[in-house]
Amino acid sequence: MGLPAARGGALFRALRAAAALATWLVSAAGSASAVVATGDPPGLNPREARAHAIWTIRSGLNVAALQCQFSPFLMTVPNYNALLRQHTDEMGEAFRTLTGFFVRTQGPRTGQRAFDTYATRTNQNWATFDAQYSFCDAAALVGRRALAVPKGRFGEFAETEIIKLRQSLDVKVGLASPLAATRISYVVTPSLKDPCVGRPLSRCR
């Protein structure tokens, strides 16, 4: 899954690292149950809280783009790539704001490592197996709605939609998902014996 070039090398590296991490998390989530965990850092001011919402919902849609490819109709991959292109500026600002938050609260020497840990946990909180259907269903809807959000308004959207996306990780909620209600039944085919098996070749012409 390609990532468009983002403004600023640090942001681009962060998004590339997040994509690689999400790939590993999806592969490691096979035996894990979904746990609804917010991972909200304490002490965020309103501006930092909005940046946290932006980064968290971006992370969720990143994981969905990798985890939900079993259904191309959900379009989680093209929608995620389009999302990055459309809202790059706000995501870049969220990255800088969150990095500044950790530097402010934990000091310049450990702030960047603290952000890396935060980014890891943010991705990890979206990895699910038991609630995969409901998560993919919700992420597809959120991703499509995000593309209709004007530039500069993604933060408001993220603060509202993040609640719905987190709720989709609840296994009980997942049972009501349209994807979870859809099952593909196995088709029993009749036994078709080869008439030539065990018979002389001359009688099979």
* Radius of gyration over all CA atoms, rounded: 22 Å
Please identify the structural class as seen in this structure.
mainly alpha
- Major beta sheet, specifics? none
Taking all residues together, what is the mean pLDDT?
Answer: 77
Gross morphology is elongated
Distance between the termini: 53 Å
What proportion strand? under 5%
Helicity, as a percent range: 55-70%
Helix count equals 8
Keywords:
0% strand, 205 residues, elongated, single chain, 60% helix
Please, could you describe this protein's structure?
The protein has one domain. Mean pLDDT is 77; it is low at 1-8, 16-38 and 183-187. α2 (46-67) packs across α7. The chain has eight helices and no strands. The chain is mainly α and 205 residues long.
Short recap of the structure:
The protein is mainly alpha-helical. It has 8 helices and no strands.
Task: Please describe the topology of this protein.
Blueprint: H1 9-28, H2 46-67, H3 76-86, H4 88-106, H5 108-124, H6 132-147, H7 154-167, H8 171-174
Helix pairs in contact: 1-2, 1-5, 2-3, 2-4, 2-6, 2-7, 3-6, 4-5, 6-7
